[in-house]
Write a structure and sequence with these properties.
It is built from four helices and eight strands; from the N terminus they run E-E-H-E-E-H-E-H-E-H-E-E. The radius of gyration is 30 Å and the shape is rod-shaped.
């Protein structure tokens, strides 16, 4: 029976003798022949599982193999972490009050989901002459998002837009 490197060896698959054995309660049984370790595992109604195959002698543990496999699969699923994305919210100086509130609620949802939010106030045509209106809109948005996020980069002008990045707290 061929065993690949990333699969855990159990019971008769363990060919090396002697092995260092840890009992079901976590106590050291010492270095004993593989046959004797296998007998002790069977007497306890459990499996002999190789937990550290690279050590010399290999470390084996008397445990329930099904439970061990389940815990290993749980560990691999827990390692998955949230990838932070940057979400964008676009506004204009003449955007209505209700529309701004709606965009702020969206931004709050993004920040609670651990994503960054980039707020852009875009200027078109004659709006370029009244940049202070865009600044007022930006300051209002930042004030309302202050409790769920912190300003990562302050509002700065880039061409025809005012840009600010907010990170989750």
């Amino acid at each position: 029976m061929a065993v690949d490197r990333n699969q855990t060896r159990i019971n008769e698959q363990i060919r090396i003798t002697p092995v260092r054995v840890i009992d079901a309660d976590g106590g050291q049984l010492g270095v004993i022949p593989t046959r004797e370790a296998l007998e002790r595992a069977r007497d306890a109604g459990l499996d002999l599982v190789e937990v550290a195959p690279t050590e010399r002698p290999p470390v084996c543990r008397i445990m329930d193999y099904g439970k061990y496999k389940y815990q290993q699969s749980k560990k691999t699923h827990q390692k998955h972490t949230h990838q932070t994305k940057t979400k964008e919210i676009r506004l204009r100086p003449k955007t209505g009050e209700h529309d701004i509130e709606f965009k702020i609620k969206q931004a709050e949802r993004f920040l609670q989901h651990k994503d960054k939010v980039q707020v852009k106030v875009m200027f078109r045509g004659r709006e370029n002459a009244h940049r202070e209106e865009g600044r007022k809109v930006m300051e209002g948005v930042l004030a309302q998002l202050a409790e769920v996020g912190k300003v990562e980069s302050p509002p700065m002008e880039q061409g025809r837009q005012l840009i600010c990045t907010i990170a989750p707290k």
